[in-house]
Amino acid sequence: MDAACGDAGHKALPMNKTQRVVALLSDRRWHTNSELNEILFRYGETIRRLRVRGYVIHVEEVNRETGLWRYRMVSVPPVAVGRQVRTREQALAIYAQIGPRPREPEAQGRLLP
């Protein structure tokens, strides 16, 4: 039995880059742009999309000469699952069980909710 999803024979799907950024920032501690670069190079667009979705992410300049910045997730939006509103932690646990939802075409210029 797979611990991630609870079903025999089913494995948890790998996280996409946005999910990896959320996982990194979810501890609500400061993380540098160097850490975000380890996940993806163009993290600014991902941060912007997360903010549009309701995540509150603070940013501070650490060192102007070296271009070092730090980011911290302050709050996350509640996620509607069925008829219940769940916290981020509950939503992540549910996501681990059911996997990602089908992606909408981003080429059409729509932001994913």
Keywords:
113 residues; 33% helix; two-stranded antiparallel ribbon; single chain; disordered N terminus; disordered C terminus; alpha+beta; 21% strand
Task: Describe the protein in words.
- There is one protein chain.
- By secondary structure, the chain is of the alpha+beta class.
- It has one domain.
- It contains 4 helices and 5 strands.
- The strands form 2 sheets. It has a 3-stranded antiparallel sheet with strand order 1-3-2.
- Strand 4 and strand 5 form a beta hairpin.
- The longest helix has 11 residues.
- The termini are far apart.
- The N terminus and C terminus are likely disordered.
**Strand neighbour order, sheet with most strands:** 1-3-2
* Whole-angstrom Rg: 16 Å
Largest sheet: 3 strands, antiparallel
Alpha-beta classification = alpha+beta
Give the overall average pLDDT.
74
Number of domains: 1
Overall geometry? globular
For the secondary structure, the number of strands is: 5
From the N-terminal CA to the C-terminal CA, the straight-line distance is 32 Å
Low-confidence stretches: 1-7, 102-113
Fraction in beta strands: 15-25%
**Number of discrete helical segments:** 4
Helical content band:
25-40%
Order of helices and strands: HEHHEEEEH
